[in-house]
Amino acid sequence: MDRFEVLSRSPLFAPLPEGERVRVAKRLARRRYEKDDYLFFEGDPAERLVLIAKGRVKVIKHSEGGRETILATFGPGEVVGEVGVLVGETYPATAQALEPVVTLDLPRREYVRLVQAHPALAWAIIEELGRRLQRAHETIRSLAVERVERRVARVLLRMAAASGQRLEQADVPPGAVRITTPLSRQDIADMAGTVVETAIRTMSRFQKRGWIATQGRYIILLRPHQLVLIAEELQRPPALS
User: Fold this and answer.
1) pLDDT tens per residue across span 49-89
2) How many angstroms separate the CA atoms of 59 and 69, rounded?
3) 10 Å Cβ neighbour count for 29?
4) Strand (E) positions, 63-217?
């Protein structure tokens, strides 16, 4: 996928006239990152907007004690770092590659010029920030009141929606989905707002019930509908004997 196509698929840049998108695409700088590489750190000067062309990125914050919390994950066509770029200060969180990643970076001055010149682009940013704020509120509520099984189920379903691949193999149930982004138990714990030991126990519980399977760092949702029932609290996980 070339620069222009990636740019055109991004909700934040789609409102631009085609000629402007052609011009902006030429200004994008391609960068490659390996798994676990950092795109930028919290507190770094926000000098570039990062558009993801390939792979997935997690945005994280660290507590004073060093505990990591994953605020969100982003994939192709999505951007990270836009808040710091717009404010003109520093990045408010750290971005790290969950897998090999390719980005297209736009200098801050160019992005600010676009926002000032195209009101539709500014409105697209407001809408996107509103969606992210809503997700943040949902995450806070989840961490405060929801059981860990529900939080882990939601993480798995969210990742399946973002990077899932439906399986048609004879040895898996109909509707099985493979999450194509490699995830460690620590990643799942960080996204669910729990400790890794609890994430391991919960995943083991799901696996023993035949709801999920693992292939190294890849997870297969064998019975996604069961996880939906847990995520929406329509059913509590039965106790294991």
Assistant:
1) 999 999 999 999 887 777 788 888 899 999 998 888 887 78
2) 9
3) 11
4) 68-74, 79-80, 94-97, 101-107, 164-166, 177-179, 212-215
For the stretch 108-152, pLDDT in tens is 999 888 888 888 887 787 777 777 766 666 666 665 567 889 889
> Which residues, in sequence order, are bridge partners of residue 54?
102
Residues 225 and 157: their CA atoms lie apart, in Å, by 10
pTM for this prediction? 0.70
16 in Cβ contact with 52 (< 8 Å): no
156 is written with which tokens? Answer: 């798995």
Interatomic CA distance for residues 30 and 191, integer angstroms: 28
Residue 28: partners with Cβ closer than 8 Å, 6 or more residues away: 3, 7, 51, 104, 105, 106
Query: What values do phi and psi take at 84, rounded to 5?
Result: -60, -35
CA 239/CA 206 separation, integer angstroms: 11
Q: Which domains does the chain have, with CATH numbers?
A: 3-142 (2.60.120.10), 146-231 (1.10.10.10)
